[in-house]
Design brief:
The protein contains 13 helices and eight strands. The chain is of the alpha/beta class and about 375 residues long. Strands 1, 2, 3, 4, 5, 6, 7 and 8 form an eight-stranded mixed beta sheet that branches. Strand 5 and strand 6 form a beta hairpin. It is globular, with a radius of gyration of 20 Å.
Length: about 375
């Protein structure tokens, strides 16, 4: 990596898929590879960055492996019954004062140590509920606990309000799944982006809405089969019908949204869709809280398309290094087993090591 550039490390979220990123960053730490001025993460990506900066190898994996797999953290039965299924407060108490708490002071000290003549910045992406806009808060600040909890608060799974600075906040993935554009706005020209599935080398995908409908359908079928949830089939099918109906209605009302991610019209559509839904929300039979959650869901899928546009066609002066799995990850966002999580972590370690070796080879070639 070129020393003359401002480099940023950007880490995608993804729940338990974050074990892959944890493996990459633990390998970075073990190999003393940290040439970054900026660090930006969303959801699980922000927690991975926090552990990396604090120098706590294994902390992020421990949290994913031993806390997010506990039924206390996510109770699927409550999800089916439309009770709050995710207990972030229970899980994050271990980040604050558990057996291996996050070392906030060590993180602050690292960031305050000058690098290339300036201090480094570590930021978590969170979403302003009313504005549906991404904001970036320092991870190692007095608000660190609320910031990390907010960036992980998935709207359809965590119902409590997280409030500070006069606003209500939710998962940063609603408005910026991978904050590459924010890194660029802050002056970074070389971006190392850890993703949970390839983007720059990916095969063409289906349009986002069609892909979402497919994920809902196949995901529920797999859950029914894997966990023997035959007693909940009616409720699960009802859940599927509600969301599929909403997606189909949006596709009918806004046919331009069916364009694939390679179409540049995604960018203006992303800017105007939320206001269109607000104006006509009653038309979709989504009222009150349900309407807001639908807005967030659509915002999530649209902003991810915009992120992909940026990564596939970045500004001329920007260099993007994507670190992604070589084979599809075994774990899911939630309800993964520990063996799959460990397998993804180990893949992350291997991919992280290969990336460092490649950087060493490139630097050696330049010095010859």
């Amino acid at each position: 990596m070129a020393d003359s550039r401002k480099a940023a490390l950007i880490v995608q979220g993804g729940g338990q898929k974050g074990a892959f990123s944890a493996g990459v960053l633990d390998q970075f730490k073990q190999q003393h590879f940290n040439p970054f001025s900026y660090y930006l993460g969303t959801s699980a990506g922000a927690l991975n960055i926090a552990a990396f900066i604090a120098g706590q190898t294994g902390l992020a994996l421990d949290f994913i492996l031993n806390y997010t797999t506990n039924q206390k953290f996510f109770d699927f039965n409550k999800f089916v019954q439309k009770d709050q299924p995710m207990d972030l407060d229970w899980a994050f108490q271990f980040i604050e004062r558990g057996e291996f708490p996050l070392d906030i002071e060590k993180g602050k000290t690292f960031l305050e140590t000058p690098y290339l003549g300036q201090h480094r910045e570590a930021l978590a992406c969170i979403t302003h509920v009313e504005e549906l806009k991404d904001y970036y808060y320092p991870i190692f600040s007095d608000k660190w606990f609320d910031v990390l909890k907010a960036t992980s608060a998935i709207p359809v799974l965590y119902f409590d309000d997280i409030e500070f600075d006069g606003a209500t906040w939710v998962d940063g993935g609603v408005t910026s799944t991978i904050p590459v554009e924010e890194a660029y706005r802050r002056g970074a020209k070389e971006l190392v982006v850890i993703t949970t599935e390839p983007i720059t080398n990916a095969q063409p995908e289906k349009p986002a809405f069609s892909q979402f409908s497919l994920e809902v359908e196949t995901g529920l079928d797999l859950l029914i089969e894997k966990y023997g949830l035959t007693g909940h089939v009616d409720k699960l099918n009802d859940f599927q019908r509600q969301f599929t109906k909403g997606i189909e209605q949006l596709k009918q009302d806004y046919p331009s949204l069916a364009f694939s991610s390679s179409n540049k019209r995604w960018i203006p559509e992303a800017e105007r869709l939320v206001s269109l839904i607000k104006e006509q929300s009653t038309k979709h039979n989504f009222k009150g809280d349900g309407s807001k959650k639908m807005e967030m869901l659509v915002s999530h899928y649209l902003n991810h398309e915009v992120v992909k546009e940026f990564m596939l066609d970045p500004p001329e002066e920007v260099v993007i290094h994507e670190i992604s799995p070589l084979v599809p990850l075994s774990s899911k966002g939630l309800l993964s087993n520990k063996d799959d999580i460990l397998s993804d972590y180990q893949q992350g370690q291997l991919v992280g090591k290969e990336f460092i070796l490649k950087q060493i080879e490139l630097k050696s070639a330049l010095l010859r």
